[in-house]
UniProtKB/TrEMBL annotation:
Catalytic activity: uroporphyrinogen III + 4 H(+) = coproporphyrinogen III + 4 CO2
Keywords associated with the record: Cytoplasm, Decarboxylase, Lyase, Porphyrin biosynthesis
Top-level taxonomic group: Eukaryota
Entry annotated with the keyword Cytoplasm: yes
Location(s) in or outside the cell: Cytoplasm
Single Gene Ontology BP annotation: heme biosynthetic process
Listed name of the protein: Uroporphyrinogen decarboxylase
Main location: cytoplasm
The keyword Lyase is annotated on this UniProt entry: yes
GO CC terms of this entry: cytosol
Lineage, broadest ranks: Eukaryota, Fungi, Fungi incertae sedis, Chytridiomycota, Chytridiomycota incertae sedis
Subunit-structure text: Homodimer.
Domain Uroporphyrinogen decarboxylase (URO-D): 28-37, 150-166
Amino acid sequence: MKTKRDFPSLKNDLILRAVKGEEVERIPVWVMRQAGRYLPEYLEVRKQNDFFKICRTPELACKVTLQPIDRFAGLLDASIIFCDILVIPQAMGLEVQMVEGKGPHFPHPIRVVEDLKRLKDTVDVDKELSYVYEAITLTRIKLDGRCPLFGFVGAPWTLFAYMIEGGGSKTLSKAKTWLYTYPKESHRLLQKTTDVIVDFILGQIRAGAQMIQVFDSWGGELTPKMFRTFSVPYLTQIASRVKAAMVEEGLQVPLFIFAKGAHASLDILSSIGYDVVSLDCTIDPKQARIDTKWRVTLQGNADPNLLYAPADVIKKEVREMLNAFGANNYIANLGHGMMPGHSPDALKVFLEAIRDHSSSMGNK
Ligand code: 1CP
């Protein structure tokens, strides 16, 4: 395994400095799902390869991770390893396919309590997901210090929802039925998933990930009380266990939490051990600063649909967003991921607008 010394030194550490609240000469930016379906060069690779084959082949995962970094040279301040949150359910023993035009599909989801027996008793995370570690190490080398590299995981509740729904869902009725009907078994599955997540995060960090984002994409689908009961305890556990292990191993990697739609819980999310809270576009930046009391760095939160607007509208909205968040303890991003219909040119306008406006804001 590579140690810190073996990797090329970092030439752009803006985002790491913003996390620590240090001075930055301009506001750092990256975008969720910055690799993928909106890029013609990704679609070329995808035409010849199954989605999970790309994830499982370090050279391909690395190639696709670097595509936006190459295309938007000097405009992106972070890269994120190409993978998917659903590799964890796979490692736990469930089959997941990526269906063309539909998204992830579990042919045999967890439906009844009895189905929990189909999950492996113990998961050898480092063996099952070693391909992600190899992709991370290779990408760190190929990045050559241009910007830091994110590893990521899905949060326990979001992965639970996929494992029970069997794919995307508008209502999450099946997953919520479990929470209400089988709370004990639900906690058992959430804990089992948390244990895998902790090992997987640490493995990614040891392989070279310089930041970690936890995606609780379905966090906002729960009532605040349900979120506090079925998500927050596990998110808290992840942060504390990962941080304790990092202290022991002399590692220092910031943790980001993106709980989409969890507006009511921003205060809690800013006090459970994460360094950065990532916001979706329905949250007002100033309100988010009040709720999180400057305890964390904030990330976000432009509406992804803004990238369908004319260039002058993108620029105006970017200026307003940056002014509302302020130059410190802030990382610009979209409030959710890039969409297949987006044009790479629109993203370029967004990134350039952030660079240009933030350079003129000064550090206040
Ligand atoms: O056919 C294809 O090429 C599949 C499209 C695709 C891509 C490019 C999927 C299917 N996943 C990904 C990559 C991916 N997924 C990345 C790395 C790329 C990058 O960011 O540069 C990341 C970080 C994810 C994370 C992910 N996967 C999340 C969390 C973020 C979010 O969007 O909320 C979720 C919920 C998933 C599940 C998933 N995988 C793919 C799709 C279409 C979905 C969402 C399905 C649904 O609507 O429920």
